[in-house]
Amino acid sequence: EPVHTLIHMLCLAALQRLSLRSHLQCKMIELGAIDWILENLRSVVNRMAEASIEHSNSFNGLGPLLSSNGAATLGTPDFSIEFASALLMNLTLRAAGRKRCGEFGAFRVLLRLIEHPNAQVRTHINGTLYALLGVPSLRAEAQKQGAEEAFRVVLARSPPP
Protein backbone atom coordinates (compact mmCIF):
# COMPACT_ATOMS: atom_id res chain seq x y z
CA GLU A 1 0.00 0.00 0.00
CA PRO A 2 1.17 3.55 -0.67
CA VAL A 3 2.12 5.35 2.55
CA HIS A 4 -0.72 7.88 2.25
CA THR A 5 -3.68 5.48 2.13
CA LEU A 6 -6.17 5.15 4.96
CA ILE A 7 -5.33 1.48 5.48
CA HIS A 8 -1.63 2.33 5.77
CA MET A 9 -2.30 5.00 8.37
CA LEU A 10 -4.59 2.75 10.41
CA CYS A 11 -2.05 -0.09 10.35
CA LEU A 12 0.71 2.29 11.36
CA ALA A 13 -1.40 3.60 14.24
CA ALA A 14 -2.09 0.02 15.39
CA LEU A 15 1.61 -0.89 15.20
CA GLN A 16 2.50 2.18 17.20
CA ARG A 17 0.03 1.24 19.93
CA LEU A 18 1.26 -2.37 19.95
CA SER A 19 4.87 -1.19 20.16
CA LEU A 20 4.29 -0.26 23.79
CA ARG A 21 4.61 -3.97 24.66
CA SER A 22 8.20 -5.16 25.02
CA HIS A 23 7.79 -8.59 23.41
CA LEU A 24 6.13 -6.98 20.39
CA GLN A 25 8.89 -4.36 20.19
CA CYS A 26 11.43 -7.16 19.85
CA LYS A 27 9.40 -8.89 17.15
CA MET A 28 8.92 -5.65 15.17
CA ILE A 29 12.66 -4.96 15.30
CA GLU A 30 13.39 -8.52 14.21
CA LEU A 31 10.96 -8.20 11.28
CA GLY A 32 12.56 -4.98 9.99
CA ALA A 33 10.18 -2.29 11.22
CA ILE A 34 13.04 0.12 11.95
CA ASP A 35 14.45 -0.28 8.44
CA TRP A 36 11.01 0.41 6.93
CA ILE A 37 10.37 3.44 9.18
CA LEU A 38 13.76 4.98 8.43
CA GLU A 39 13.31 4.45 4.68
CA ASN A 40 9.96 6.22 4.85
CA LEU A 41 11.33 9.05 7.00
CA ARG A 42 14.28 9.35 4.63
CA SER A 43 11.85 9.88 1.74
CA VAL A 44 10.06 12.58 3.77
CA VAL A 45 13.42 14.29 4.38
CA ASN A 46 14.22 14.11 0.66
CA ARG A 47 10.87 15.69 -0.24
CA MET A 48 11.47 18.40 2.37
CA ALA A 49 14.88 19.12 0.84
CA GLU A 50 13.42 19.28 -2.68
CA ALA A 51 10.70 21.66 -1.53
CA SER A 52 13.28 23.74 0.31
CA ILE A 53 15.41 24.10 -2.82
CA GLU A 54 12.38 25.06 -4.91
CA HIS A 55 11.28 27.65 -2.37
CA SER A 56 14.60 28.78 -0.87
CA ASN A 57 13.15 32.18 0.06
CA SER A 58 10.80 30.56 2.60
CA PHE A 59 11.49 30.57 6.34
CA ASN A 60 13.78 27.60 7.11
CA GLY A 61 12.83 26.18 3.74
CA LEU A 62 9.65 24.82 5.34
CA GLY A 63 7.26 27.45 4.05
CA PRO A 64 6.00 25.42 1.08
CA LEU A 65 5.41 22.42 3.34
CA LEU A 66 2.89 24.26 5.46
CA SER A 67 -0.71 25.05 4.68
CA SER A 68 -2.31 28.26 5.88
CA ASN A 69 -3.20 26.62 9.21
CA GLY A 70 0.36 25.35 9.82
CA ALA A 71 -0.27 21.68 8.98
CA ALA A 72 2.19 19.88 6.73
CA THR A 73 1.02 19.26 3.17
CA LEU A 74 3.61 16.76 1.98
CA GLY A 75 2.58 13.67 0.05
CA THR A 76 2.92 11.65 3.26
CA PRO A 77 0.31 13.02 5.66
CA ASP A 78 1.43 14.40 9.00
CA PHE A 79 -0.58 11.66 10.69
CA SER A 80 1.59 9.02 9.07
CA ILE A 81 4.85 10.77 9.96
CA GLU A 82 3.62 11.23 13.54
CA PHE A 83 2.86 7.56 14.03
CA ALA A 84 6.05 6.42 12.27
CA SER A 85 8.19 8.68 14.46
CA ALA A 86 6.35 7.53 17.60
CA LEU A 87 6.82 3.90 16.59
CA LEU A 88 10.53 4.49 16.02
CA MET A 89 10.86 6.16 19.43
CA ASN A 90 9.16 3.17 21.09
CA LEU A 91 11.40 0.70 19.28
CA THR A 92 14.53 2.53 20.45
CA LEU A 93 13.57 1.64 24.01
CA ARG A 94 15.13 -1.76 23.26
CA ALA A 95 18.89 -2.16 22.90
CA ALA A 96 18.31 -4.06 19.65
CA GLY A 97 16.33 -1.11 18.31
CA ARG A 98 19.08 1.36 19.16
CA LYS A 99 21.66 -0.96 17.57
CA ARG A 100 19.60 -1.27 14.39
CA CYS A 101 19.20 2.51 14.20
CA GLY A 102 22.97 2.84 14.38
CA GLU A 103 23.45 0.24 11.64
CA PHE A 104 20.91 1.93 9.40
CA GLY A 105 22.27 5.47 9.80
CA ALA A 106 19.30 6.89 11.68
CA PHE A 107 21.15 9.91 13.02
CA ARG A 108 21.30 11.75 9.67
CA VAL A 109 17.60 11.21 9.02
CA LEU A 110 16.58 12.23 12.53
CA LEU A 111 18.72 15.33 12.48
CA ARG A 112 16.95 16.51 9.32
CA LEU A 113 13.55 16.05 11.02
CA ILE A 114 14.44 17.85 14.24
CA GLU A 115 12.82 21.02 12.90
CA HIS A 116 9.77 19.36 11.35
CA PRO A 117 6.75 21.71 11.45
CA ASN A 118 4.70 19.21 13.49
CA ALA A 119 5.38 19.52 17.24
CA GLN A 120 4.54 15.84 17.89
CA VAL A 121 7.03 14.71 15.28
CA ARG A 122 9.70 16.94 16.83
CA THR A 123 8.94 15.44 20.25
CA HIS A 124 9.31 11.89 18.93
CA ILE A 125 12.50 12.75 17.05
CA ASN A 126 14.01 14.33 20.17
CA GLY A 127 13.03 11.28 22.25
CA THR A 128 14.62 8.96 19.71
CA LEU A 129 17.80 11.05 19.58
CA TYR A 130 17.94 11.03 23.39
CA ALA A 131 17.76 7.22 23.41
CA LEU A 132 20.35 6.85 20.65
CA LEU A 133 22.81 9.37 22.07
CA GLY A 134 22.75 7.47 25.36
CA VAL A 135 24.74 4.72 23.64
CA PRO A 136 28.46 5.66 23.72
CA SER A 137 29.27 4.24 20.27
CA LEU A 138 26.30 6.02 18.66
CA ARG A 139 27.13 9.25 20.48
CA ALA A 140 30.74 9.06 19.20
CA GLU A 141 29.49 8.50 15.65
CA ALA A 142 27.08 11.44 15.96
CA GLN A 143 29.91 13.63 17.19
CA LYS A 144 31.99 12.64 14.14
CA GLN A 145 29.06 13.70 11.96
CA GLY A 146 28.92 17.15 13.59
CA ALA A 147 26.03 16.64 15.99
CA GLU A 148 27.12 19.31 18.44
CA GLU A 149 27.28 22.03 15.79
CA ALA A 150 24.00 20.88 14.23
CA PHE A 151 22.25 21.09 17.60
CA ARG A 152 23.69 24.56 18.19
CA VAL A 153 22.34 25.76 14.85
CA VAL A 154 18.89 24.36 15.61
CA LEU A 155 18.90 25.96 19.07
CA ALA A 156 19.93 29.31 17.60
CA ARG A 157 16.97 29.20 15.18
CA SER A 158 14.48 28.13 17.84
CA PRO A 159 12.27 30.81 19.36
CA PRO A 160 12.72 31.42 23.10
CA PRO A 161 10.25 29.60 25.39
Please tell me about this protein's structure:
Helices cover 68% and strands 0% of the residues. It is an all-alpha fold. The radius of gyration is 16 Å and the shape is globular.
What Rg is obtained from the alpha carbons, in whole angstroms? 16 Å
Count of DSSP strands: 0
What is the 3D shape? globular
- Residue runs with pLDDT of under 50 for 5 or more positions: 57-75
Q: Looking at the chains present, what oligomeric state does this protein adopt?
A: single chain
Major sheet details: none
Summarize this entry quickly.
Helix 4 runs parallel beside helix 7 and helix 6 runs antiparallel to helix 7. The chain is built from 9 helices and no strands. The protein has 161 residues and is mostly helical.
Topology:
Layout: H1 6-18, H2 22-30, H3 33-54, H4 78-91, H5 95-103, H6 106-113, H7 119-133, H8 136-144, H9 147-157
Helix pairs in contact: 1-4, 3-4, 3-6, 4-7, 6-7
